[in-house]
Amino acid sequence: QVQLVESGGGLVQPGGSLRLSCAASGSIFSTYVMGWYRQAPGKPRELVAHITTGGSTNYADSVKGRFTISRDYVKNMVYLQMNSLKPEDTAVYSCNAKTSVEPYDYWGQGTQVTVSS
Which of 16, 32, 45, 50 has CB 3.0 to 4.6 Å from 97, enough for a Cys bridge? Predict the structure, then answer.
């Protein structure tokens, strides 16, 4: 199993930047596909970005060119660099971990990102 703890959320003005961090512990980090999801009030949770065990990345169309997901295998960390933030990026962002040998995902508690002037 793996435990996930997010940090780095906060209030930022439109056009600003934030870097979210996800600390993973409790299992072999390198075997997990990691992802960032977000959920705004009244809206379903959506995938923002994910990164495979090999380092391949995918992004939601709404964040392509603005967000970057990365992982540090030494520190067991996953990051989401968010640039050119928009009000519609406001949501609770959650870290996700998935391995092919388990039928369920692991989730962090989430960190609030608010983009407002």
Answer: 32
pLDDT tens track for 48-83: 999 999 999 999 999 999 999 999 999 999 999 999
94 strand-pairing partners: 37
The answer to whether the beta carbons of residues 49 and 63 sit under 8 Å apart is yes
* CA distances in angstroms from 24 to 33, 48, 83, 89, listed in the order given: 12, 18, 24, 24
As a whole number of angstroms, the distance between CA 98 and CA 96 comes to: 7
Which are the contacts of 11, defined by CB distance < 8 A and separation ≥ 6? 114, 116
**What does the pLDDT look like over 2-39, one tens digit per residue?**
899 999 999 999 999 999 999 999 877 788 999 999 99
First-to-final CA distance of the chain: 40
Q: How many helices and strands in the chain, by DSSP H and E?
A: 0, 11
Is-contact 29 2, C-beta < 8 A? yes
